[in-house]
Amino acid sequence: MSISKTYLSDIRERAERAKEKRAGLGPDIDLSRYSQHIERGRIENLESLSRQAKEAAVMAGIDVTEEVRSGSYLQVDHSVVYERLNRIYEGKLEIMSTTDALTKYDWLEDYYWRAVPVDQDKYTAQAELNMTHGYFIRVFPYQKPEYPVQACLLVAESYVSQNVHNIIIVEEGAELQVITGCTLAKRDAEGIHLGISEFFIKKGGKLFFTMIHNWAENFHVRPRTWAIIEEDGVFISNYVLLKPVKSIQAFPVAYLKGDRASAKFNTVVYGLKDSYIDLGSRIILEGENTRGESVARTIAADESVIYARGDLIAKTKGYCLAHLDCRGIVFSQNAKIYAIPQLISEGALKAELSHEASIGPIAEEQVEYLMSRGIPKDDAVSVITSGFLSLDIPYLPEVIDRNIKEVIKATSREVM
Amino acid sequence: MQEMLRVEDLSVSVGNRQVLKGVNFSMNYGEVHTLLGPNGAGKTSFIMTLMGFPKYKVDRGKIYFKGEDITQKDLYERAKLGMGISFQRPPTVRGVTLRKFIEIISDGADKDEIMNAAERLNLSEHLDRNLNEGFSGGEMKRSELLQLMVQRPDMVLIDEPESGVDLENIALVGEAVNTLLGREDKVKDPKRGAMIITHTGYILDYVNADKGYIIIDGVLVCGGNPRDILSEIKKHGYRRCAVCR
Fold first, then answer.
1. Which of A136, A261, A284, B86 is the one with CA 20 to 30 A from B227?
2. DSSP per residue over A248-270, as a string?
3. Can you name the residues that pair with B65 across neighbouring β-strands?
4. What is the pLDDT of residues A379-410, one digit of tens each?
5. Nearest-neighbour CA in chain B from A383: distance (Å)
6. pTM for the whole structure
7. Greatest CA separation found in chain B?
8. Is B74's CB within 8 Å of A366's CB?
9. A365, B93: Cβ pair inside 8 Å?
10. Disruptive mutation site among A369, A385, A388, A404 for chain B (greatest number of B CBs within 10 Å)
11. Are A390 and B95 in contact (CB under 8 A)?
12. Which residues of A touch B80 (CB under 8 A)?
């Protein structure tokens, strides 16, 4: 049974009222430019993707063989072209489009737009008014699939607004790894990706979520993400952006609702060309004995501009502990980094909030140290930069790890 | 014995300050020399200049290593020629583990051999830590020596190997220096040599040195038997050396 019409109507109304509402951060985008609608047919398997699409998917962390994946979801432009659950996980895990899930489960009303406000801005409004699927993943209570679920949201045409609404539910005591790759198959495509992501981690549940963004110079991106974590729940979010983008603005929120809930954000960003990048994370500590950590490493090269934000907000009357660690390197005289940490205590007398933020060049002392061991200068810079961006991210696909190193090597030479 | 290192009339400055003045020095293959002097005398400046750190500008003079003029060669080139240095206070390199760094330096050397060396230096549990991050004084020294064991330079410049090291670990450091110089079991490797900066002389209980020098205000004032020199300093301080020159 599908979600109630009354609720949907109310959501719709709120979206309508917000459809011109500018976002608080980031350049304003004229969404009317991106009105092309593209429908595509289903594919048998991921290997049968076109060469360009397959390459893009692989570079975004997708395993096209699905050998070490518990399930897969692929959307191209506005169509769900592939979804598959590994049979051994039937009854333990489910994957489908959000559209299908909304039709199937009336209880989804307790989740759909319950975390992200539909009227936050024109982008959330657009995602509701012109929704084009997104993925729904749910892991059943106490289930812990061995391999990650992978989802790929691919744009293959220009002037498209891909408006996805993703929902992940980790039921009590369950654990789930998700790798999401959002990317372009057409390098010069103009368009926008609006991604609403609502994550619900129930008591004792764990979600390890890795998102790889590979966009291009003419593409805009506006993700809106909220995770609600209940008692003893764990949320770890990894985000990697290594390619140019026209503009991206995102400020995901982890709401530590339950006691002893915890969240960690790891962010690796390499700004290239004239990318406008405004990224951050917000952790709200409401439960007692909650813990949060946000670690970001950013490099700004070429003419890129990076806003690196981090908010820690303590609301609990009990103890909580959170830390922000934001470091940046500016590689070019025309690049900029704004590091903006913010600590807020709302009468939280026992909260311990801290931050360290720094922007600085690669330390010459470190480069010389490596050279004294017989490492040539450009390799030394690569090793140090690689180390700087290395956050020991769990479950990061190897292809991404290699990609990080390749980008560093290529850009380090230019810096030299 | 064949000469490995020769320094001729070397004057060096850092910024506007002259740190070495007309230094003349030579060392043969297989020799170990020690260098003493008061704080700020130029000891570290001397070995940093030999190694080729860019901050140390050669105003006058020449440095020859293995018969080649290396005065204009950079750090990397000197390391490739066979020079190595153990820092007193090496920098921290976050994101690069000791293990990873050793692998990069080792360039295909036997992994088991490397791991054995790490174990002998009580560094097995440090291998997966960020390079030098949170290492104690002794751990840093041992980490430096491990790296040099892998790098295998022909001439090692060691800056105060005993500083920050507890008595228990000085023996370990001493043994490691001997291994580095190919002096285990008292069989000398005729090729490898070292210049060791020391304040206390404790390292001499473990490593046989051939010659000792004193440097004061950037000038190499004298040289001789390393134990005699140490004894002189312990008795009279550096006052008499300053006058003697």
1. B86
2. EEE--EEEE-STT-EEEEEEEEE
3. B5, B68
4. 999 899 888 887 776 666 777 777 777 766 66
5. 8
6. 0.85
7. 53
8. no
9. no
10. A369
11. yes
12. 374
